[in-house]
Specification:
With 688 residues, the chain is mostly beta strands. Helix content is 3%, strand content 44%. The chain is elongated.
């Protein structure tokens, strides 16, 4: 034998490098995992589950003789949060309706909308100031102020005002008749009327009048202006007369419930209009204009096309005082943005950026927000959005080949943005796009292409992870969550069917489903990571972790494996199974089980009738003040004695270990293991 190393002990303190399918895997990596997390402390732990919030709460408290699931038959495809007056509202979408969650009661806000069945089709929620913007790219954009739903922006315009004339169609006013204007006798005291009337200054001057009207909503947003009124002049009004202009036809049916006023503008040249009055409500039909023509007015009517409502879009985001609108049905290659200065509900006709000029379908798909920048994605490219010193948007290309599949497949954490492209899983660190995991990227390519847009991403700042809920295998709905540790790049998988997620008071609320006692799916809201079960308290899930292929210092050498010392955190009186495989063969060579505690170990200061209690006596009630690490010795053997005689030692070039528990709700933590083996070196040619 050459290069023999004799008896060796190899200690693997942790396996936190995540999934890796390379032939020669790096230290700490895993071949496969399901239902486990990797912790920063170097542990492999059973993933916490999801605790139901609404249906199960009603069921447990027996609020009705037959508890009714408010989400029956409908996945919760979108969740939004809205903060106001120190409180946080939760809005959910299911079954073509939007609902408000108040405690554990679900109240309908609106129905008859597009019945989204997948996350990509679902509604998006964005809080901008004191309103929650609601978009889905199919139904009209809405906003929620905590009390009512109303359209986003003002699409309609008031009818044109009408000025009363001396003789209809004549276009003049005359103080001598008073039929079309309110007038006073010039012999009256001028001081009495100087603040309430217009004084005719010269018989040689003709002052023309024309008016426009706009709607104003309760957020201060103004609509586009009405058509101009008819035009009148005071050409026939004698010198020094006092008069007022009677403007009528000002009442109109408001286009939405949030309209609470109107603004009347006047022009003396037919070109520039200035504000002369704010008219509260919508019913006042007339206004007597007594503002002198020579008075300096400062608030001009915005130019046409300035106060247009936002386009029908799938998603929106806020960045540096502007609201951006993307995935616009009519203009999928453009990104629209609002005016600054507080006009969040209006989009000027010229406020758009051409993201892609490629007419072959490279459409705007997604966005991501960093601490001081935003990313705009198309199907096949990435661009960075910033602002210049004047607050105007600047777009800089980042990648010409990598894009994002949808806005819901993007999530930000600190100054990093994580997203899934058609070619894999990537992160943007502020300067460049980097792949995260070769294994996950390969598995992204194997996901059903039609469901890539249904990926749902969210971040967990406390545990420093990002998650991606995907449609995997033969399923047509989201059925698996990929967990990515941002500090190590470690990736693991969870068998959780999550369709939506939102942060709420430091926690994450998800829309998910789980089987009831009869096996039918139950749709509910759930608290992420708050339980060791999935849905029902008795609904557990399997936790499995496979190590990499352990080859020692040299994969060519023959080795004899004697035993394994497993280090774990004592949690419960439950079984864990350890299985071993050799020589790159997935077939099991042998397995054994051990308890995730030592049931015979005496506890501290726990006595019953003078007899010290063991951990096995009180494991279900005992909570340790600190984590206890224990060690279990496992001797290797073979299961198939016909293929591998039992009197033969376990000799191979490499070994892989699998740790698993059954589909129950038992938490567990592995700290590491110590592998005892003997390295025989490379055998000479012709030896056995």
């Amino acid at each position: 034998m050459s290069r023999a190393r004799g008896r060796t002990i190899q200690f693997d303190p942790s396996q936190v490098a995540g999934l890796d399918d390379k032939v020669w895997q790096k230290e700490g990596s895993s071949t496969d995992s399901m239902g486990v997390f990797f912790s920063l402390r170097g542990e492999v732990l059973k993933a916490p589950g999801i605790a139901p919030l609404v249906y199960e709460w009603n069921h447990r408290n027996d609020k009705a003789s037959t508890p009714v699931n408010p989400f029956i038959g409908n996945p919760i495809v979108s969740i939004g949060s809205f903060q106001r007056d120190g409180a946080t509202d939760i809005l959910v979408e299911f079954g073509g309706g939007l609902y408000h969650l108040d405690g554990n009661e679900v109240t309908k806000l609106i129905d008859g909308r597009y019945n989204a069945r997948t996350p990509y089709e679902a509604t998006r929620f964005l809080q901008v100031g004191n309103v929650l913007v609601i978009t889905n790219g199919k139904d009209p954009n809405l906003k929620w102020d905590g009390v009512k739903l109303s359209p986003l922006g003002i699409a309609g315009t008031p009818t044109a005002p009408i000025i009363a004339e001396r003789d209809p169609g004549n276009g003049t006013v005359d103080v001598n008749t008073g039929s079309s204007i309110s007038n006073t006798n010039p012999s009256s005291s001028l001081s009495m009327w100087s603040g309430f009337s217009i004084q005719k200054n010269s018989t040689t001057t003709s002052d023309p009048y024309r008016y426009k009207l706009t709607w104003v909503n309760d957020a201060g947003q103004e609509s586009e202006a009405s058509a101009a009124s008819n035009s009148v002049t005071d050409a026939d009004t004698r010198e020094d007369a006092l008069y007022t202009i009677l403007v009528a036809n000002l009442s109109d049916t408001a286009p939405s419930d949030d309209i609470n006023g109107r603004i009347l503008y006047r022009s003396m040249d037919g070109i520039t209009y200035y504000e002369i009055a704010y008219l509260p409500g919508t019913t006042t039909d007339t206004y007597f204009d007594s503002t002198p023509p020579g008075l300096t007015l400062s608030t001009a009517l915005a130019e046409a096309g300035t106060n247009l409502p936002p386009p029908l879009c799938k998603w929106a985001f806020e960045f540096r005082g502007r609201t951006y609108y993307g995935a616009v049905a009519e203009d999928p290659l453009l990104l629209y943005y609002s005016e600054d200065g507080g006009a969040k509900e209006a989009v000027k006709a010229s406020n758009f950026i051409v993201i892609s000029s490629d007419g072959s379908g490279d459409e705007v798909t997604a966005y991501g927000l960093g601490s001081d920048f935003a990313l705009i994605f198309t199907n096949r490219s990435t661009h960075m959005l910033t602002h210049d010193k004047n607050g105007l948007p600047i777009m800089t290309p980042v990648s010409r080949t990598i894009g994002a599949v949808s806005d819901r497949a993007v999530t930000g954490f600190g100054n990093q943005i994580f997203f899934i492209s058609e070619s894999g899983l990537y992160a943007f660190d502020g300067s460049k796009v980097l792949p995260i995991s070769a294994k996950i990227s390969e598995q992204v390519k194997n996901l059903p292409p039609a469901h890539l847009k249904d990926i749902v991403a969210w971040a967990d700042a406390i545990n420093r992870r990002v998650y991606f809920s995907v449609v995997s295998g033969a399923s047509s709905v989201n059925n698996e969550v990929w967990s990515v540790h941002i500090d190590t790049g470690a990736v693991s998988k969870l068998p959780f069917p999550v369709t939506s997620a939102v942060r709420y008071k430091g926690e994450t609320i998800v829309g998910f489903n789980y089987p009831d006692a009869a096996g039918s799916p139950v749709y509910d809201l759930g608290l992420w990571g708050a339980s060791n079960s999935l849905g029902r308290s008795d609904s557990g899930y399997e936790g499995t972790f496979e190590t990499r292929w352990i080859t020692g210092k040299n994969p060519q050498t023959d080795k004899t494996y004697f035993r394994l010392d497993v280090f774990y955190v004592q949690t419960a009186n439950k079984d864990m199974t350890v299985t071993w495989h050799t020589d790159w063969d997935r077939d099991s060579i042998g397995s054994t089980t051990f308890k995730l505690c030592d049931p015979d170990a005496l506890t501290w200061d726990e006595v019953s009738n003078g007899t010290p209690l063991t951990w096995g006596d009180i494991y279900s009630q005992k909570t340790w003040d600190e984590s206890r690490v224990r060690c279990k010795r496992i001797n290797f053997g073979v299961a198939d004695t016909a293929k591998y005689p039992s009197d033969q030692p376990l000799t191979a070039k490499c070994i892989k270990l699998t740790f698993s528990t059954t589909a129950d709700k038992t938490p567990w933590k592995l700290v590491g293991f110590m592998l005892h083996s003997e390295d025989h070196g490379i055998r000479a040619e012709g030896t056995d």
